Amino acid sequence: MNRFISALLLLVIPIVSLALDDGPRPGYRDTPIIPGQKWKVHDSERPYPVVVDPGAGIFSNSRPDDAVVLLDASAELSAWSSGGKEPRWGVVDGTMEARPGSGDISTRDSFGDIQLHLEFRTPPEVKGNSQGRGNSGVFLMERYEIQVLDSYQNPTYPDGQCAAFYGQWPPLVNACRGPGQWQSYDIIFKAPRFSADGSLLAAARATVIHNGVMVHHDREFLGPTSHRRKPSYSKHAPLGKIKLQDHGNPIRYRNIWLRNLPDETESDSR
User: Fold this and answer.
1) What CATH number is attached to the domain comprising 234?
2) CA 109, CA 127: separation in Å to the nearest integer?
3) pTM for the complete prediction?
4) Which domain holds residue 188?
5) How many other CB atoms sit within 10 Å of the CB of residue 158?
6) What is the pLDDT of residues 111-155, one digit of tens each?
7) Is 220 helix (H, G, I), strand (E, B) or coil?
8) 82 — phi, psi (to 5°)?
9) In the chain, at which residue ranges do the beta strands (DSSP E only) sit?
10) How far is 263 from 238, CA to CA, in rounded Å?
11) Which pLDDT tens digit goes with each residue over 33-82?
């Protein structure tokens, strides 16, 4: 790298940083404190995660032989439904696309502890800002959301940016690629456990790798995710569906598969 380029980068990096912090920050200051944290839900004053370049990435339709395939290159939607009816999402170039007004889409089957892989693409044409730009979400058991958002040079409240546990935990770093580029999530999810009387025995947990970069490591969900509300647990079924959100933006998904993971307690007792 020559001296001219080095000097140019030194000039550009502060400009980008200033752009992210310039003007009123998106978020709220009238929401409840997140349990166990000093920050409020969607806190506008919470620090932004550091931006990292995830690299080019490698995508493939290969998968383990014990994988449950939810969407492959055929873009056949038989594994999905919209409110128990035929899915209303579009099929485009071997992908499925959320179209405004199409509603959320959920798996027909229910799952517990899983390893989940999926790939998504926010729209190439940038429209909107903050939560209005490339918004969707991956809901585990239809309750625990890993946010999907175009967070490339798009400030929003940190616990609502791409790869956040929505309303609870920002990602460790911002590993987003630019608009229109394919991105990947690899999620290891452990469902919560409840006693017979409904009390919580073990919280839901997840490890999330975004574009090959770990952004959550065995992190605890504080309860089902929601907008502007403090999370809390109530007993629910041990299995649940995977839901992808229609938030009014044409997000595309492809190459979705999962592996059912054995209960570690039962495995250890054999």
Assistant:
1) 2.60.120.560
2) 34
3) 0.87
4) 3-268
5) 24
6) 999 999 999 999 998 888 899 888 999 999 999 999 999 999 999
7) strand
8) -115, 105
9) 50-51, 68-71, 80-81, 90-92, 95-97, 105-107, 114-121, 136-140, 144-148, 173-174, 182-190, 193-194, 200-202, 205-210, 213-220, 243-244, 252-260
10) 12
11) 999 999 999 999 999 999 999 988 777 778 999 999 999 999 899 999 99
